[in-house]
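Justification of computing resources. Each target in the renewal requires a structure prediction run like the one illustrated here; the chain below, 489 residues long, is used simply to show the kind of job we budget for.
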Amino acid sequence: MDTKFYKNILDKAPIGYAYHKIILDDQNQPVDYRFLKVNSEFERLTGLKSENILNKRVTEVLPGIRDEFDWISVYGSVALNMEEKNFEQYSEALQSCYKIKAYAPKKYYFVTIFKDITPEIEMVKSSQQFLEQTEGPIDYQAITDNLLNISGAKYIAFNEFEEGSKDFRTRAISGISQNIQKGLDILGFNPVEKHWKHDPIREQKISGRATTYFDRLRDLTGEVIPRQIIASIENIFNLGQTVIVKITKDGNMLGDFTIMMPSNRKLQNQYLIETYAQQVGLYLGKRRAESRHKSSEERYRLMVKSFHDGITVIQNNKLEYVNDAFAEMLNMDKDELENLAPSQIFNREAINRLQQSPSGQATGNQEDYNFETVLFSKKDNKINARIHSTTIEHNDEESIFATIQDITKQKQIIGQLKQEVQNSHSLDNFIAICAGCHKIRDKDKEGNPWISPAEYVTKRLPDVQFSHGMCPECIKKWYPEYIDSENED
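Resulting structure tokens:
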């Protein structure tokens, strides 16, 4: 096989290749090196074109190279000592991190074979960011900027679906400079935080694939954005291939990245990009779940806070939690009340009953665990309380959950009612009788309450029967003639 064959393989290889000659000073110390050969992948990875660098010194091509890692000394050692070195290093001048193998085919010459590992490094950094950012608003811009570095794209838009809907919102766009933003403003098109209605055509085009490729942006957008505007955007920003990468979790699509490549480049690192999108999906899913949990927790917290009855959770022989109502009931501050031992609030009998609380999952009769007791407030005031208790899991430990109802006023009212009933019963021993006609006042009778004694007694003792006659005094009073004629006889 001829040299042309091997040269062709080298030029098509998916790794960067460069051949150099080291340059020495008068003391035979390496001070520079010259580019002799490079392949097309070298050009892609570094952005340096062969016509601009061949036979030139590295200090001419990258004037700031001496200000960072000492590349010249490392490569000088390889070239002079016929060494082989493998290492990873970030190049400030090229804004990339490389995994490099350097060796010397002959003295004073050296070869570098390398690949850009910046995407992998960015993936590790991004993963760390996802793990660390658990509070505060989601940094959509940072997420999008990270993917721009991983993908080598020109622009990337981060679209997030609204929960429970197929509508989506563009959260961030990476790669846009101030000048580009001005251009978008002139066009009257600013997509950041723009709300987009569900587009079934777009959905169909990307269905069934994690990553979907389009030759042009207009092939994706259809009629959602006027074609004239899309054509202007493609021309102004020199856009080529457009790629949609889905952001999913558990098979549910949470959003996507719309990746726009320059017209002369195709997307690289698809696997890394899809992995990154999966990480973003896990992160978004986690944050959404946390948001729902926090919202639910806040609703329950407000509900508990608004309860008029006291609530406490007893764990490890201390009041782990109390609500405002219980603290107010005992005339104490919440901070003062929490972490007290139950024996400082409840009597021994009540503590025994609390310790016998059934499981919250139990079924059947739990009436024994609704009981009444007496509490003592900070001012030693007696508080009559009705307690319902059960056992729950709190912070992965079994705890006692109790609601406490202050029934002191209820007890007082019941006592007053009992006294009034007793008083009313004692009044029944007195019967109001008219001093003139001797009728009796019936308090239960509507209208005229005055009735005859017979009617009064019959009403209360229905089994009693009356016969009517007159006593001697009344006969003498009302019928004296009858008395007188009887005496004559």
